[in-house]
Amino acid sequence: RSLGHICWWYGDPEATLRYCQEALALVSPESPIAANIYITMATPYVYRQQFETARQYAEHGLAIAEQLQLPELLPRAHSNLGSILSRGGEIETGERHLRKAVELAQGSGLESYARVMAVGYLAQNLCGQGRLDEGRQLAEAILWERAANPNTYEMVVTRSVLADIALEADALDEAQAIFESLEEIGQRRQFRIPLAMVYFGLAYIHQQNGRSEAAIHYAQQSVAILEPLDLWQLFLD
């Protein structure tokens, strides 16, 4: 299961699903580990526009975590489902799950990863609702709080969300500075999917500023990562 999660961080959704299926064959289908597996499996499906499959896995993982009263899993379970619902167009329901994830993570003090990811997803959700200032404040607060660990996967994702919010506010220079700071980290840590979105953001900014050659260069780098993975939902988002 852990290998599956790591493979997602490094941009191999096929391996994520393969390891998770292997793990499911080794455990009781209603066990804590199974709940964790279902939560991990949901994400690759949502980025492939298979929302119903993603939602089923996320809801099943959450149901087990609630039934077995697993406080260490509940923040990530709510966060994952909230992100999926948001991307599927159920913005308000998604927001409720994301706020629940943040609340549970703060209350337990255990899940810093889940908390940062939930805040990032919530900021993205609010941005989609046009609530840019609220989303920006949430993202900036968690980034400030976790500033000592800027190179982790969850921090890269959340900083990328902050750049997206800057784009929505037409603050192109601010967005470019954030994306450029993430480019080196993404390359060094090999966070390939977040790196693809950094390239995509830089392509958009250069195109908006009339620098077509640079825009095409970054766009081609983004497509080169995502095309073999069939994760076009990221571009649509």
Outline of the structure:
Helix content is 78%, strand content 0%. It is built from 13 helices and no strands.
Summarize the helices and strands and which ones pair or pack.
Layout: H1 2-9, H2 13-24, H3 32-46, H4 51-67, H5 74-87, H6 91-108, H7 112-128, H8 132-145, H9 153-168, H10 172-189, H11 192-208, H12 212-226, H13 233-236
Walkthrough of the structure:
Helices cover 78% and strands 0% of the residues. The mean pLDDT is 94. The relative contact order is 0.09. It has helices at 2-9, 13-24, 32-46, 51-67, 74-87, 91-108, 112-128, 132-145, 153-168, 172-189, 192-208, 212-226, 233-236. It has 237 residues and is mostly helical. It has 13 helices and no strands.
Strand content: under 5%
The helical percent reads over 70%
Low-confidence stretches: none
Mean pLDDT: 94
What is the terminal separation in angstroms? 27 Å
Succession of helices and strands: HHHHHHHHHHHHH
What is the general shape? globular
Largest sheet: none
Q: Please identify the structural class as seen in this structure.
A: mainly alpha
Number of helices: 13
Number of strands: 0
| Cα Rg | 17 Å
What keywords describe this structure?
single chain; 237 residues; mainly alpha
